[in-house]
Amino acid sequence: MLLEDWDQGHCRFWASIPEEGNDNEKNNYSIAQRNAIVEANLWCIDSVIRQNRPLMRAARLEYDDVYQQLALRLIKAVAGYDPEKGRLEQHIFAQLKYASFLAADRPTGSAV
């Protein structure tokens, strides 16, 4: 879910998780910890967008639409991260790159 917080000069992205957790979760992050990790890794979105700029142009995708889709994917990547399977940064980049290719295949306005 997108939460716009323009008082701080930027948007914050979050997704609620039930108190008992999610079966897909392999980590024990609280919502506050997860949100802090997401905010600390927002730079990954810009990196993936920079790497895929020609793809975005060819598919006529809007920067804001792609950024929002990748931000949602980032939240899901952090929430579903399994520390036993590798580093968090590797997991985030794999998820974001996969989502960027999905965004190119979908018409503008559809969610990842």
Tell me what you see in this structure.
The longest helix is centred in the C-terminal third of the chain and has 18 residues, at 88-105. Helix 1 crosses helix 4 (63-79), helix 2 crosses helix 5 (88-105) and helix 4 (63-79) packs across helix 5. It contains five helices and two strands; from the N terminus they run E-E-H-H-H-H-H. Residues 1-7 and 17-22 have low confidence and may be disordered. Helices cover 54% and strands 7% of the residues. It is mostly helical and 112 residues long. The chain has a two-stranded antiparallel sheet with strand order 1-2. It is elongated, with a radius of gyration of 14 Å.
- Class from helix and strand fractions: mainly alpha
Number of helices: 5
Helical content class: 40-55%
What strand order characterises the main sheet? Answer: 1-2
Please provide the count of β strands: 2
Spatial separation of the terminal alpha carbons: 12 Å
* Low-confidence spans: 1-7, 17-22
Sequence of secondary-structure elements: EEHHHHH
Write down the overall geometry.
elongated
Average pLDDT rating: 79
Residue share in β-strands: 5-15%
Main beta sheet strand tally, sense and closure: 2 strands, antiparallel
Features:
5 helices; 7% strand; 54% helix
How is this fold's topology laid out?
Blueprint: E1 2-5, E2 10-13, H1 31-40, H2 43-51, H3 53-58, H4 63-79, H5 88-105
Antiparallel strand pairs: 1-2
Helix pairs in contact: 1-4, 2-5, 4-5
